[in-house]
Amino acid sequence: MGELGVAMMLRIVPRALRGRRMRAVLRFPDAALIFLVCLMAPHAWAQGPPYQTDDPVPVDLHHYEFYVFGGADGTPAEMDSTGPAFEFNWGAIPRVQLHAILPWGVVAPSNNPAYLPGGTGQTEFGLTDMELGAKIAYIRESKYVPQIGTFTMFEMPTGSYSKGLGVGKVWYRLPLWLQKNIGPWLLDGGAGETVVPQTDYRDFPYGGFLLKYTFPGDRLEFGGEVFAHGKEGFAAPQTQASTLIDLGGYYHFKRNPNEQFLFCYGHSIAGQTENYAYVGMYWTWGKDAKGPAAGPPFLWQSARPGALP
């Protein structure tokens, strides 16, 4: 996938304001972009969950990804949790990945008068806004050039607007992502704009920068990211801008390295106080162009280098 995430893609908002909150996302530092472009590496690898920073690497052609996950993201005004949630990605055509998330979640306002007019209402659980998207890789990574692509997402109004489980209208994420590798190190970064055509919400910028290391043996990957976002509006818990640092990674199971456990936790370091958490399971399967069909779903995974023909 990618971002939650995407990175985690689901957010909910106070019932009193009849809308759903959007995910917190980060402004991308210029220095990170310069560093990213200057690095060198031979292969591109997919990123995304459990981090909030996404990547420009689509799922390989004729391959599939499936996630079962849960998470949380909130401020002192409101804590929103997601789960169970299900994500599916498909390498439909070369350099293009189709993406969908079907989420359930909880909106839990604090009902603290200090955060009025937000953060009020009943705790609610139910289906939240479904996410559809397409990741497209435009430039392949080379010795001196990072891989570059987009991951446009459409948030569909499937959650109850009156209960605060949905925004009530289609809203969008429009990011540009870059990736560069050097040995066991991976760097992802980018920025974008969230467009929310709904009362009491704002359009806001976001972006992130991730540095991840794969330990010898390829069983454990661990990384850290800087992730931030602008003001999201009075109908969202994130009424102010915030910048977070998140730490997390992947564990590849020995009996089946194509099955992975994903984890991440983060906290704000500037702006509005905010927490982020993600935990999930990941499987992938598919067929290589010159090889036999892979084993049954959840029992096989491609190595995922390159991702571009």
Describe what this molecule looks like in 3D.
The protein has 309 residues and is mainly beta. The protein has one domain: monomeric porin ompg (Porin). The chain has one helix spanning 30-38, and strands at 3-5, 63-75, 78-93, 96-109, 124-127, 130-139, 147-156, 171-182, 185-195, 204-214, 220-229, 242-252, 259-271, 275-286. The longest helix has 9 residues, at 30-38. The chain is built from one helix and 14 strands. The protein has a twelve-stranded antiparallel barrel with strand order 2-3-4-6-7-8-9-10-11-12-13-14.
Q: Which structural class do you get from the secondary structure elements? A: mainly beta
Within the largest sheet, what's the order of strands? 2-3-4-6-7-8-9-10-11-12-13-14
Whole-number count of domains: 1
Q: Summarize the main sheet.
A: 12 strands, antiparallel, barrel
CATH class: Mainly Beta
| Number of H- or I-type helical stretches | 1
Rg for CA atoms: 18 Å
Q: How many strand elements?
A: 14
- The proportion of strand residues reads over 45%
CATH-derived architecture: Beta Barrel
Low-confidence residue ranges? 1-44, 296-309
Listing every helix as H and every strand as E from the N terminus to the C terminus, the arrangement reads: EHEEEEEEEEEEEEE
* CATH topology annotation: Porin
CATH superfamily: monomeric porin ompg
Q: Give the mean pLDDT.
A: 83
Q: How far apart are the termini? A: 19 Å
